[in-house]
Amino acid sequence: MKFTDGYWLIREGYNVQNPADIRDITYTSDSMTVFAATKIIATKGDTLNGTLLKADFSSPMPDVIRVKLFHHKGKINKGPAFELFPSDTNVQISVDEETAVLTSGQLSVQVNRKQGWNIDFNYAGKRITGSGWRAPAYIQDPDKKAYYREQLDLGVGEYIYGLGERFTPFVKNGQVVEIWNEDGGTSSEQSYKNIPFYLSSKGYGVFVNHPEKVSYEIASENVSRVQFSVEGEYLEYFIIGGATPKDVLDNYTKLTGKPALPPAWTFGLWLTTSFTTDYDEATVNHFVDGMAERDLPLSVFHFDCFWMKEYQWCDFEWDKDMFPDPEGMLRRLKDKGLKICAWINPYIAEKSHLFDEGMENGYLVKTPDGSVWQWDLWQAGMGLVDFTNPDAVKWYKSKLEVLIDQGVDCFKTDFGERIPTNVVYFDGSDPVKMHNYYTFLYNKAVFEVLEDKLGKGEAALFARSATVGGQQFPVHWGGDCSATYESMAETVRGGLSLGLSGFGFWSHDISGFENTAPPDIYKRWVQFGLLSSHSRLHGSTSYRVPWLFDEEAVDVVRKFTKLKCSIMPYLYNSAVESKERGLPMMRAMVLEYPQDPTCFTLDTQYMLGDSILVAPIFNKEGDVQYYLPEGKWTNYLTGEVLEGNRWYSENHGYMTLPMMIKPNTLLAVGKEDSRPDYDYADGVSLHLFELGDGASAQADIVNTLAEQELSVTASRSGNVIEVKASGAGKPWMLVLRGIGEVVSVDQGTAASGEHGAVITPAAGASSVTITLK
């Protein structure tokens, strides 16, 4: 939201007051408050009939500084509020005539007392950003509506990322961003997942702690600043520091919640009925059996909306005309080794028998006059479950429990964005704040019932909407994309932006939701989809099984599904890292290479975990351009070795793409390629790529309970590679990629293999020494 008319003038009718003269600073053992007049005070009389703005500084955890700017603090502040997880913090405060400094960890805020309003934020002694002249402001519009604004400095060459799943350009500089959840598809500036957190290429983050609408002007209203504003009498934000961008995300997710670890089976291929297609048990089995007959590993089958009767969403009951024996059908599908997902949303249509039940018991959101809020958009006469009512939550969960008992393993929690603001909630929550926050309560309730019924570590969603904290309830997917290369590219941008907003696990509708892709787009999107954290074939009006596209599509799905299953030991260890540190599995290049300026703007390639670079192909011709950072990189699919720190242009068929392994990588490859959940340590092959002299590489292998079973480190000195293993209770072997022969192996044997020399450790050996030619 803009308040100025160019750099010098204020928009007509707006009253903008900035802190101009610091009058006092008070402090306790863990916080300090700055009082600033909005004009220069020359005499005592100047203190009358004026505004005094306040700024509180404190720290909820090391390397994080909380800033609260406020005008009048007496206004009632209704919830909801984001759930935060503060920790013990040793705060240091020093105040003298020139400066006041609050320090938390290596992050500090310095108030310069003699310079009007001049605030510096420093990390490890280096300034990262600040709030200066005319930056913060208390504002009234022509209707006397109040706003609070802050502007933080943006340095030369500094880029801003994140702010949720955004399909606009990956670098947010120059954009206006409204944090307001909308069902806008993937081809607009709207977003299903709005997160008021951005990450800077300078290595810090800013989290605005407001669940309501936050308006950003990113190098737009003022081209050298990032501006954010909210309606009301106060504005609260956190500066989040870290030694690297990964550390910043770690700190942000410590504060707002770490992602849960999805069960290993969720990483396999999901197939759905699609949205408006016809399906019954015979149709479902035709597709499931067709996948098996073609040796296409399938892990999850999803029933989309019409598993329930039309006009009755959600009544949580199977359409008896289509599914006369749902329990038996689910049992038969599960006997084929499948997990089952069912579509739901938080709305109750009037035709559903649950509408009267919810209305009579006060389980549905109401209008100010006490009526049930309803509209006809999506479902005729639908109401909205009031998740602020504990009894409504229990009621909603009870309906899901029945489905879980029938055999459903997870839920696609669709919608949650179309939330009205002219309503009244059971707990008195502010309906404007609830618009974005509603999705948190919705997904939390569903995730909890899955955990309660299936056990800790077995819960998984397929969620579309999100707000701050929603990363705790994975998995999320990218919403309604189209069957075009342009939409595929915007989908990549959305996933990269969400990953830089604290979300670890993300998926998308392979080949696009709207329309039906031509075979070439289907095959290219399959490559990208099966090299994402989660992989789902889904569409709107047509089925997405590969043989309906062409026979080569069958081969592509088979190859890349098996490929993903085979690298699950690597992927699942990456997933554990996502759980522990809040890092995305599919990560922007800038996150892994923050010192390489070429990586700052890359949005058509990404890292899958910390060692695999993927460059999807966005055209029918198979042409691709991509950049490799420094070092020797190996194409996992072709074995070609390329020198980094340069761009490449290549052409690929549908069976290959740039899937590049970074140098000094020990990549864990499993012995299984038909399912994602197996014993990763048993018979694992550790592929060693381009280990440089003096370098080392490590691979950790966990089981499906996230317990470490094997850790292997390889170190090179000259022509000797030392390999050390711990926890080696199961057989494993080492593959020296690109090295055909070795001179000798101590505590092991060598043999020739498809990709290089294969080293098999002696029984019980915890170390192996390899001498190269």
UniProtKB/TrEMBL annotation:
The source's domain of life comes to Bacteria
- One short Pfam name that applies is Glyco_hydro_31_2nd
Catalytic class of the enzyme: hydrolase
Q: Which residues form the Glycoside hydrolase family 31 TIM barrel domain?
A: 259-573
The UniProt record lists the EC number as 3.2.1.177
Which InterPro entries does the record match to this protein?
A: Alpha-glycosidase_related (IPR050985), Gal_mutarotase_sf_dom (IPR011013), GH (IPR017853), Glyco_hydro_31_C (IPR048395), Glyco_hydro_31_N_dom (IPR025887), Glyco_hydro_31_TIM (IPR000322), Glyco_hydro_b (IPR013780)
Which sequence ranges form a coiled-coil region, renumbered to this chain? none
The answer to whether the entry has keyword Hydrolase is yes
- Fetch the Gene3D superfamilies from UniProt: Glycosidases, glycosyl hydrolase (family 31), Golgi alpha-mannosidase II
The Swiss-Prot or TrEMBL record describes its family as follows: Belongs to the glycosyl hydrolase 31 family.
Q: Name it.
A: Alpha-D-xyloside xylohydrolase
Species this protein is from = Paenibacillus favisporus
Give the organism's phylogenetic lineage: Bacteria, Bacillati, Bacillota, Bacilli, Bacillales
